[in-house]
Amino acid sequence: MFTTKKIGKSFQYAFEGDDWFSKMIISGLLFLSGIGIFAINGNGMQLMRTMVKEDNTEQTPIDWNNLGENFLDGIKIWLVNLIWKLPLIAVRTFILIVNIIILIASAESESEAGMAIFFLLWLVSCSLALVYKLALSGFKPIIVGEVATYQTIQSGLNLKKIFHLAKNSFWRNVGITILSALVFFLTFIAGSQLLNVGTVLTMPYAYDLKYHLYGQSYLETYKESVAEEEKETKEATPKKKTTPKKTTEK
């Protein structure tokens, strides 16, 4: 069960170990570089991979010893996220094109009805984006966890497995994703108050929190799935009928 104690552990994770500050500075400099965000995401995925491999959430921030591998992992998860967003991008692009046509036509004819349709479609587009992102958040820790564990793009697109794993953890994942997004927003605001210099510390903290939360949720989801499969196998196995031994009378 995902308790408040586990959430608290994720909030403390970034400060574990004696060299947490130097690791955070490296992450912050990578964040400021822009392209280094790929490596930060890859580092977070390495954390998730370690948590699953060792079956242990008691971790210290990952060392920056595999920058190249972290960078490649970050590109993989970026591509996977992009593919998952393609349906939404396609629908919103279509609505945008229709809106542009309506806007041009209504401007030429000075039609108020055209402008009303324009704003209605814009509202539909925004609503679709919100609903789709909310639904996707229920799968996000699993998607990232699959790519982190198996280190392939295909593993993050295995719909059958991802939907199966999300069966019992969907709303937990939604809550975790929303919480991490809220922390991202607040830490960015806090860092921006110091002319963006503060983001060197605040944004790495947000990434550490996010991936530790994702790692805990994915590990718990994986354990729940294994336990469920073992239970189904046990129930499907026919029980052997025991026949009472006949006693011979003397």
Would you give an account of this structure?
- The protein is an all-alpha fold and 250 residues long.
- It contains nine helices and no strands.
- Helix 1 crosses helix 9 (199-236) and helix 6 crosses helix 9.
- The longest helix has 43 residues, at 67-109.
- The chain starts with a helix and ends in a 14-residue tail after the last helix.
Topology:
Blueprint lengths: L3 H10 L6 H14 L3 H18 L12 H43 L2 H26 L2 H11 L8 H7 L4 H23 L6 H38 L14
Helix pairs in contact: 1-9, 2-9, 3-4, 3-6, 3-9, 4-5, 4-6, 5-8, 6-9, 8-9
Q: TL;DR?
A:
It contains nine helices and no strands. With 250 residues, it is mostly helical.
Observed structural traits:
250 residues; 9 helices; mainly alpha; globular
- Overall shape: it is globular
Task: Give a count of the beta strands, DSSP E runs of length 2 or more.
Answer: 0
Largest sheet: none
The percent of residues in helical segments reads over 70%
**Oligomeric state of the chains?**
single chain
Low-confidence spans: none
Distance between the termini: 61 Å
Q: Average pLDDT across residues?
A: 87
Query: Which percent range describes the beta-strand content?
Result: under 5%
Please provide the ordered H/E string of secondary-structure elements.
HHHHHHHHH
Which structural class matches the secondary elements?
mainly alpha
Number of helices: 9
Computed over alpha carbons, the radius of gyration is 24 Å
